[in-house]
Design brief:
The chain has 156 residues and is an alpha+beta fold. The protein contains five helices and eight strands.
Length: 156
Amino acid sequence: MLTTRLAPMIPADIDFVIEHLWERGEAEAEKFGMTDKNEIGRYLHSLPREFAWTIWHGFSPLAVLIASRTDDGVYHTSFIATNEFPKAGLAATRILNRLFKQVMAAHPDKKFELWSASDHPSADKWFEVTGWKYSRPEGLFRVYESCSKNFVATSA
């Protein structure tokens, strides 16, 4: 049985996930104006990485999560996953739920946003399970707030 675990992210993890990108992530990136995998990779590599993790499944990266501070002091999150994500989705979801709770408890002075363009019917439920609740629409995107009062997540 393969184990699923969290580790600090390194740049090679982005490259692996991009090479094996899940079609849902690719479709969502297009809504952000990124039309090919190289463009997605360049964007992710350009982000400051004060908070950056990789979810591993077995011996390979499964997904990367980066939270980058914007000019207005808000941390925007970027999450991409490989096409193997559905196979380990439950374990990864549990890891993300614990991670978000820990980060929010450790950094009550920081505000996080996650912009989501996902049109998948179960997206709202998944974000709720990982610690966010739907707040409002924002153009093509959906905004989610953290279940912790100190954080706001905007998810695409």
